Amino acid sequence: MLHDNLILLESFLHADQYDGGAAEFHERCSCAVAQDRKTELFGIIDLDGNWCIAPSFIFLREKWGDKGLFLGQLPGEDKSFEYTYDREKRTLTKM
Description:
By secondary structure, the protein is mainly beta.
């Protein structure tokens, strides 16, 4: 369950894009982008509401169909970083 201090912004799904209904969402969703209400910073949470990447991102863009599911850009930096999602450990790892 999501914490009260989070605003769920957009769900990121497994690399096979998902067009199903809400009933199937939790079976196929890996993690989601959320905004911390106190700091107004963005991060990525798992379905239990735990931070996979702590709130700090100003830019996140999904990538479909390959190993790199996410690109992230740290505040004040022009370089983007690629992350992969480990389904068993339910974590994102910086490449």
